[in-house]
Amino acid sequence: MVSDFEEFDSLCFNVKLHGTSKSLWLISIATSCRSVWLARNEMVFERKVLSMDTLIFHSKMRALLWVRFQSCYMGWHCPPHGWLNFNISWMTIGEAMGYGGVLRDEEGNVRALFSGPCDAIDVDSSELRAIITTLDVIIEIRWRGTGLIIFEIGSLVAYNWLLNKHKRPWLQQATFVDMERRLAYEGEVAFSKAE
User: Fold this and answer.
1) Which residues, 6+ apart, have CB-to-CB distance to 135 below 8 Å?
2) How far apart are CA 186 and CA 183, in angstroms?
3) Which domain of life does the UniProt lineage start with (predicted)?
4) For residue 159, is pLDDT > 60?
5) Which H or E run contains 184?
6) Would you call 74 helix, strand, or coil by DSSP?
């Protein structure tokens, strides 16, 4: 327990961890603070109250995305000029599932970032929902026709579904129709399997 900001600051930064462990600790603290701030804003401005489980889930999702962003960026190769690269990630905690993504330009600058819970029933479906959300983000920021968009996804199954229409499961047909409609709007899109 801490009584003021100075004690909180001391607790966060004076922890006896080093290197990667300390970085992960600080990311966890930062994402937790961000999640609490956003939940507070929703409560004040939208009269929406989040449960503690939801707040913890959002904090873990944000931490996963920030860690994924850092690790991808360190080993990441810039796309050609005018192209965008979108790294998509998913996560499960207990029975809850979520996804997120980081959109970067050819200089590695973050152009968009999103995360949230997902009602998908499995990892592969979650990645497909993340692609649709990503396309919605790209449409919203009006990135159309200026260059190729590369989606890096982690699921080999979803990646194979994207490349081979005849391998797509019947239960996912509505999802692929939604995706194809958005892809037609965007133009040049490529998919790659993330390491």
Assistant:
1) 179, 182, 183, 185, 186
2) 5
3) Eukaryota
4) yes
5) helix 173-186
6) helix
pLDDT attached to residue 29: 85
Above 80 in pLDDT, residue 73?
A: no
Average pLDDT, the chain: 78
pTM listed for this prediction: 0.56
Question: Whole-angstrom Cα distance, residue 92 to residue 177?
Answer: 25
Alpha helices in 47-170 (DSSP H): 52-74, 123-140, 156-163
E strand spans, the chain: 84-93, 96-104, 110-118, 149-153, 189-193
Q: Output 170-176 pairs: Cβ under 8 A, ≥24 positions apart.
A: 172/125, 172/128, 175/125, 175/128, 175/129, 175/132, 176/128
